Amino acid sequence: MPEGISKTSAVRHLMVRVGTPGIRVIYAGDSGNDRHPLASGVFWGVLVGNAPEDLREDLRRTIRQRGFEERVYFASAPYAAGVLEGCRWFGLDKG
Question: The domain that contains 40 carries what CATH number?
Answer without folding.
Answer: 3.40.50.1000
